[in-house]
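Think of the structure tokens as a kind of shorthand, similar to the way a musician reads notation: each symbol stands for something richer, in this case the local conformation of the backbone. In the example below we present two proteins back to back. Begin with the first one, reading the sequence and then the tokens, and try to describe in your own words what changes along the chain.
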Amino acid sequence: MKIILKKDVIGLGYKDEVLTVKDGYGRNYLLPQGYAVLATEKAVKQLNEELKQRAHKIAKIKADAEAEGKKFEGVSLVIKAKVSEGKNIYGSVGAKEIAAALAEKGLEIDSKLISVKAAKALGQYEAVARFHREVNVSIPFEVVSEDGKVAEPAPAPVAEAPAEEPAAETAE
């Protein structure tokens, strides 16, 4: 089923995109919720005309997203978490924790715009903030224990050198 998105749908696409989705997903979720309309020939033609008319508005939206993204460039975070005996943390560090850490630095962002694989151990990670379909900003962060200890790299295994056997004296 071909549809035209009327709103941004995380994981699917952005507003005014023409997509092909499974019939059930479109008919039972996207259309009734008002997230999409059927992509008939008339609707696609109307969309193209509308996009031409608001091309300057789209450029402004993208410029605003780039300006917002520039605020987040060069930002790195240190997030404290409770740690078990090893270097694993209790729970995980996800988008909500990153959004809260950014808010402490005075940078407000909706946690839904942050994409990150859950951090379940101490160490360095990277999150991506999506401000626009073409504007993504990488946000590096480090997870440390609450007492401030940084993850210590595991010592490299030392290969044991073979013990030298005393040279056997030759009898003459």
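Once you have a description of the first chain, move to the second and do the same.
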Amino acid sequence: MTEKNHKGRLFIVTAPSGAGKTSLIKALVELCPQFKISTSHTTRKPRQGEKEGVDYYFVDNDTFDNLKKSGEFLENAECHGAKYGTAMTPVEESIKAGKDIILEIDYQGAINVKKVFADAISLFIIPPTIDDLKKRLEGRGQNSEAEIKGRLLAAEEEISHLEKFDYVIINEKFDQALCDLKSVFNDSPESINLETSKQKRIFQSLIDSIK
């Protein structure tokens, strides 16, 4: 999608905290550098290893609010006590230039972006079980017990909206999930099996465990 007169594609990737979204996207971009990740603004503090302008633009609340008031954001949301926003201009410029771009955002932001870019391709990454998600959050060692509880409750709410997305990828085994992600981005024939309507039988048990 880089030929002249071809628009780039916009991919929206959403997942509960701890489902492995960021690791999968980074691995995908290493394999397929033609895909670019949109850099969001956030008011949260950088985690170990994160770089300014690469992982996020780390800003204070006042700066974020000023950007929001001036209409700079395509979408913005508050999640786990921090604000996140995607700037409109870089996304539009990438698409016009024929470059494929990835938005790594929460489900609320994804739904808002689809209102602006109806042809955006949306993917939802989920863990095989809620217990598995809990173990992953505990294993990261970045959150307190109370924070983990809050993230699990948020995950349940987020997963209840996954049928609004075009594709569902179950991150049980990282290599397989990466292969699935790659097939969607490359529009491979096997990606049809990852369409939400075809995955429902598989992920229904996860939804049932939440109810």
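Compare your description with these statements about the second chain. DSSP finds eight helices and nine strands in the chain.
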